[in-house]
Design goal:
By secondary structure, this protein is α+β, with helices and mostly antiparallel strands. It is 30% helix and 21% strand. The protein is built from two helices and two strands, in the order ααββ. The protein has a two-stranded antiparallel sheet. The chain is extended.
């Protein structure tokens, strides 16, 4: 998936590439003390995010 994205990015004009990267990236953080950077993607969430079921995974307690 990432290799295809990289291939397609080569086809963009500079201004279009900037707009595209701005739409998929939240930020890029450069580390001034090391030759590294961190890319923070913008991940769109579709619908409602359900993390856990309201009742849990155990059967209800019956006394």
């Amino acid at each position: 998936m990432l290799s295809r994205l990289a291939e397609e990015m080569r086809l963009y004009e500079r201004a279009d590439l900037r707009d595209f990267l701005g739409s998929i990236l939240d930020r890029v953080e450069l580390d001034p003390n090391a030759p590294t950077l961190q890319v923070c993607p913008r991940i769109p969430l579709r619908g409602v995010l359900n993390v856990a079921s309201p009742g849990g995974f155990e059967p209800p307690y019956l006394p």
